[in-house]
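SEQUENCE, STRUCTURE TOKENS:
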Amino acid sequence: MKEFKFIPIKHGGGALTDPKPQQKFEKPDNCILEFIQNAIDASKKNKNQALKTTLRFHFKLIKKSDCNFLDKNFENHLNKRKYNRSQNLDESIPCLIMEDFNTTGITGDATVVDDQTKQGKKNNWYYFLIDFGGGSKLDDADKGGSEGEGRQTFMLNSGIATFFGLSIDSTNDNKPTIFGMSYFGARKVNEITYPVFSSFGKESSESGNKECVGVVNSDDSEEFISTFKLKRKPLESGTSIVVPFYNQDEINKDFIIEKLVDIYRVPIVRGQLEVYIEDECINAENIRNYAYENEENLSRKLLFNNYYTFLDNTKNTQEENKFELNYYDQKQISKNDISDFEKLIEKYNKNETIKIRLNFQVTKLLENSNSRTKIVGSHYDIFLEKYASHLDHLRENFNDFIRGPIPVYNRRNKKTSMFHLIDLQDREATLLFKHAEQANHSDISSDNWKLQDKYKNYRNIIILSKKITTDLYSLISLEDTEDDFDSTQDLFKIEEEGDNRQSDDENNDDQNLENQNDNKIGDDNDQNQEGNNENKNEIKSKDPITKITHIIVPPIFPGLKKYDVSEKNEKDGTISYKIKGIRYNAEEIKSNIQSAEKYITDCNKVDITKYETKDQAKQLELLQKTILTYEKRIVEYKNFLIDGCTFYPRKIIVEAAYDTEGLNNPFKRYSPRDFDFSNEEFKLELDGNIKLSEKNENKLILLANEDKFSFKLNGFKEGIEDIRWKDRNYTL
């Protein structure tokens, strides 16, 4: 590589500005993620449709003696650097190689120090090599980047704060260019001050000033390919990046696979991206296998296949499962804002994939004006799917926020028991949220300075979009939710003094609990699973595993109930409905936590290789489900202890309707002509710290301040109609 040299340009006067990229790109995965984003931005297009991008990551050991550009001049500057001082320039150089294919390469003319080529076209080489932080991609909806700072991550992950590259431009006769860059900080070498960044290439004085530009030379580029053992062929378009002395403590094959499968799962599933890490390929056909194998937590394993099926379903949602949500800056969305909300609930409860198009308006500032605006319509899509019933107690981050093909991965949350995907593909929506993103594209903020220069009245839509899925989940959860009290039987209620009455359910308590643990998972869905792993690891460390061959019988370990509900035929021929608060004994709760933890420890000793028949497999499946339940309930119990062993104060909403045969949801068919709780025949009895807040047709709203209370409603006549009851409750 005769022309390719290290050419530092001395400081020309004025401020020495350091962007301090380590403050934005401090994590080792930023290097990987930045390269992927740049590659997707450079995807070739066919009729404006981006083609599948192929990436290759590999690791090579290079000799310093083969790199004539790493000369004494470079070492003098390296020894004066401010950053990445832990690494010396050794003879053996481990390199991380990152290459993209089916891409355009960096377009323009690397020898022209201007934002336009001599032909008047946009010169992306200028923005890559010279204009740091210029925001050249900010107003391009097809580009993932926004601030023009990301390539600094390549230098931050190098022990010598340096990277090299080769790019072949498909728009310019597949012309090759080699280049390089170092981030040493402002420094003095031989009494001369140099700026923050220095470059590799060749010297140019075309602009009137001494500059370092890329080397456009086929012979040098072919030698570059040979030296760094690239996969790229000499005239194959795309970009190859070499990071010498990469962060070997963090970055390896498994690390890259983990990051790809986790963060870029949506574009991979959609066939927009395939990746080779050494000799392994991750694509749409096998990504769910990698995801499953890399996950150790059993509960998450059970959700993985369902999530990837959900992502597949988002590609082609059925027409009858599409809905509209119109947003006009209202403070809070309601079901009235959604088209055919009742049908949406029906589809959701059938575990079908739902698509909601959120329509909104964007107010854009006209160029060179702080007052003149233009209002344009825009939208993005929200896909939802309910967890399977046996997993709906879990809350996991199986959700994504996508702008174009770029994941805004810190928008994931563990606040719902449903899969969801926010999908921004409309041009105006893409541009708006691009301006709201952080430099590393991991999150959005309505306070981002980039918004202020381009938009007005943007805050509410950004704020709403950060919580839209949890808002929708709350709306949906308020509809057609009925508590399954069989799966949440109480265990150690404290009877009030002098009260020895028991309902029929209470008399069969122990038997019900045994049946529950043998046959089903509890369905409480308000616990975060994050604490489960910690608990499991703690147990394993205390008790080394010795394999056993028999299935462990679970102890009684029920879900905690907020209150008791019962229905009774009274002697006067009426039917009464009763709600009674439940008090729990803290010491009994602690004892049951210990029993459950021991059970999980014992289950980990079961030798699953001994269970091969169909019936044995069912036993194992039941064991796994019970473990999941107990893990969830351990967290539930511990949180309950922290809260002082109380769920109160609470709001309790009670509804009733005639249960006509053949109706799935009789509450929707209720009419005031059926009955009205305001009528005299209905009697209410309230005892303890509880009061009636609202009485309206078939609905009662109760406010209970502590667990010491009872409520009773009487008035329905036996034999007239079967009554369906529904109760919901919320923390005050």
Summary: The longest strand covers residues 699-717.
